[in-house]
Amino acid sequence: MVAAGVAVAAHAATPDVQAAPLSPAAEGVSLAEPTAPGSAVYTVALTSDATGHSWSGTEKISFANPGHAPISEFWIRLWGNGVTGCVGSPPERISALIGGRIAETTENCTAYRIVLDTALAPGARGEISFGLAIDVPVRQDRFGVNGVDTYLGNALAVLAVKDENGWELPPYVAFGESYYSLTADYDVTLDHPAALQVPSSGTVVGETPVGDRIVTHITAAKVRDFSWSAGAFNHDHMVTASGVTVDAYWPNSESDSRCRELMRYAADALESYGVRFGAYPYPRFTIVFDEFGSAFDGMEYPNYVLASAHAGAVAHEVAHQWWFALVGDDQYRHPWLDEAFAEYSAERFQGGVTPAHGCDWIAADERMDVGMDVFERAGDPLYHDAVYHEGTCMLYDLEDTIGRDAMNRLLHGLVDRYAYGVMRPQDVRALAAEVSGKDLSAFWARWRNAGD
Ligand SMILES: [Zn+2]
Asked: Which H or E element spans position 193?
């Protein structure tokens, strides 16, 4: 995410060159004995109303039991209820559950505990399916109707993650992210008015006109979520040198020429990051340019981002395709992991020789290695300073400390090891020590980032 009003000066793009090949990516996530569903396949069919504000249909989640003990229950997240909670009729509702029952809801109706009708044996696959109704609230938000366009960020029900801390069920956070999910395959069918376009994660594999509507069929492989929007957008596309289709969309309120220029800029960023970190491994990248007022300046999803029409937001959100989308992290416990890496990547791509912001902590007790629970109490300014500004300063300093070559080996190595998986703070520290041959414990302590 990038907060509103945090514009970063646009420098000339000077791609970083680092030539190591991308090694085969690690599958899944290295967790202790797994007792949670894995290898999920989501099959979704939704039909919108005439405006694209309301959607209803079905969602099926198929999953494996990768462990050695039966699975009898698990949690799913329904993030669209995060702002308004359970009061009245929540924006997102599930019904007619087949394969299990809802035993409990918590965290403002964003978390549902599902008890399976039949426990799933080790190695077996099971599934649940349910009706899903979505009424997107009118508000400037990543899950909101913004003017005439509808944004459905994190709107599909996703499996929660059980890791070394147990079930991770963080609350929704308005000014940051709580999203934490494992990579999965999505097959999504959206039935919508022909006048509306549906920019999304994944790749369109079919468009079937039915009267004045279109049924758009989209697939997304090995992504950790699926989001989309609906609106009468303008559209253009291009193909990068390495063969990735970049689709850009924008409402009439945005400048055509500016958005086309930024589409090419996004393609340049995609190529540059691909050289430095490892190639973008998906066939399509989609970007929607729009203004979200004071709500935010950009928001990341797998294969798909929202961005204000300026270079800093674009560079940052494209970088999230590596830091968050490909290399996953627990965004609630360790928000610095993807935000610091995304902002550092963006500023380097933009040609920033030094960090764009000052490197002085604004509070004596501020720390980088804390979760969104602490930042919710401290407030957005401290979150922004610790995670984005000091985090970027820290990574510039790390590059100065270990050298450009070692920094490139670190970044490429993190992608090699943790692509499609989950990266932890200790993984970053361990690989930084490994590639540099240095004891960096004093470095991390100085940056108030020595905890887990
Ligand atoms: Zn971000």
From this structure: strand 184-193
Burial call 27-63: b when 16+ CB within 10 Å, e when fewer: eebebeebbbbbbbbbbbbbebeeebbbbbbbbbbbb
Residue 363 φ/ψ, nearest 5 degrees: -145, 145
pTM exceeds cut of 0.90: yes
Contacts of 443 (CB under 8 A, 6+ apart): 397, 398, 401
Give the distance (Å) from ligand 1 centre to CA of residue 299.
7
Ligand 1 centroid to Cα of residue 320, in Å, is 7
Paired residues of 184 in beta bridges: 223
How much distance in Å is there from the Cα of 381 to the middle of ligand 1? 15
DSSP class of 416 = H
Output the CA 3–ligand 1 centroid distance in Å: 8
Helix 335-349 / helix 425-436 crossing angle, nearest 10 deg: 50
Residue-wise pLDDT for 331-376, tens only, equals: 999 999 999 999 999 999 999 999 999 899 999 999 999 999 999 9
